[in-house]
What we know:
Shape of chain B: elongated
CATH topology of chain A: Cytochrome Bc1 Complex, Chain C
Shape of chain A: globular
Largest sheet of chain A: none
Structural class of chain B: mainly alpha
Radius of gyration of chain B: 30 Å
CATH class of the domain at 85-160 in chain B: Mainly Alpha
Strand order of the largest sheet of chain B: 1-2
Strand content of chain A: under 5%
Structural class of chain A: mainly alpha
Helix content of chain A: over 70%
CATH architecture of the domain at 85-160 in chain B: Orthogonal Bundle
Number of strands of chain A: 1
CATH superfamily of chain A: Cytochrome Bc1 Complex, Chain C
Number of helices of chain B: 4
Distance between the termini of chain A: 28 Å
Oligomer: heterodimer
Amino acid sequence: MKVMDRMRQSTIGRSMFRVPDRVTERDRAAGHWANFLLHLYPVKVRRKELTFGYSAFLGVSSLVLFVSLVVSGVYLMFFYVPSPGNAYGDIQNIQTSVAFGQYVRNVHRWAAHLMVIAVAAHMAKVFYRGAYKPPKEFNWVLGVILLVLTLLLSFTGYLLPWDQLAYWAVTVGTSMAGYVPLIGDSVKQILLGGPTVGSTTLLRFYVLHVAVLPLLLTGVLAFHLWRWRKDSMLQMDQQGGSDV
Amino acid sequence: MSDQDPTIVAGQRLLGVVPGKPAVGDRKELKEEDPVMVWPHLLVRHAVAALVVLFIVLLLGLAFDAPLRAIADPTNTPNPEKAPWYFAALQELLSHFHPLVAGVLVPTAIILGLAALPYIDRNPVISPRARRVARTTFTVFLVVWIALTLVGFAFRGANWGWVWPWQEWHGEL
C-alpha cells in the first residue's frame, strides 16, 4: 500500500488520480465519482445485491465475454479478408500459420456461444427477481435490445468462416426473412445483397459483425449500465436515502 | 511465562473481566437492504466472477477446437440443413407451422412481448408468491423454448426426421 500511496503522491500519480485520501466514506465516494472506470457503477448497492443468489453475476459475465470477444475478434481481423475467394483459406491459415491463431479462434467461438447463454440467463434471472418493475422498466427494454443485438452478432459471425456449416446455417436463417408479408423479398435482398448467399452477403455480414453491431451494442450497453446505476440509487433514495 | 503473574503482560495489567458486549459491540448489524460501498464489496466479487468466466473460456478454447467443415459449396446442400443452435427452436417450429407463423409472427411476438413485459405486468410486488401468474407464464415459455431448442439441435437428422442423439449426432456448434 505504501508504494501505491507514494505513486499517487508523485507528479504522474496526481495527474492520473484526482482522488482525495480515502479516509471517510465521503472521500471514498468522491474517489468513486472521479474515476472514469468506476463511474458506470453506483457508489453504493444494497447489501443483498452482493450475494451470488441475487444475480449469479450473469450481467458482469456477459460484459466480460463481450470484452474477450472484442479482443480476440480484433486479433482475427488482422488475418481475414471477407471475400469468398479468401475467407476459407484465411481461416485455414489462421489455424495453421498464425501465432495462437487456432487458440484465439477457439476462444472467440466459445465466448460467443457462452455470451448468448449468459445474456439469456441474465434476462431470466432479472425476470425471476422482479427487477424489471418500476423504476427499471426501460432498462429491461434496453436489455431486450441487447439480447437481440447479441443474437445478430453471433449470427453474422457464423457466416464468416465460409464453410459448409456457415453457408447453410445462414441460408436457413435468412430464408425466414423472405416470409415477412409485403416487404419480405426486399428485406431478404437487403440482407443478402442478392437472391442467394454470396460475396455481397459475406461483405455485408462482415461489416455488420465487426463494425455496426459491436458499436451499436457498446452504445446501448453504456446506456444500460448508466440506467442500472441511476435506477439502483433511485431505489435506495426511495427507501430512505443512500446515505447511512 | 508460568512463573510470572499471568495478569501482567509486557507492562500491561489486566484489571478484570466484565460480562457484557465487547467494547466495539455497538457496531450496527447490517441488514439486507442496507447500502454498502461498491468499492470494495461489489467490485471484488465482480473481479472474481470475471476471472472465473475468463478461466472457463480459456479452458474451453484449449479443450475444443472450433469446427471448420469443407469450403462453402452452393451446389451441395447438406442434409440436415441446420441453423445455429440459438435458432434451433425457430427451425423446429418451422417444420410444424407455416413459415409466416414460425419464421415471422412467433419471433416478432416474442421480442415485442419481452420488451412490453414491464408495461403488461403492472403488479408492483416483487415477492415470488404474489407473482404466480407472471412466473408461471414465463416459466412455461422458457421450458417450451429450451425443449424446442434441444429437439431442433440434437434430435433432428436427415430430412428433419427424428433421431436419438446417442445413435446419430447432428448437432453443430
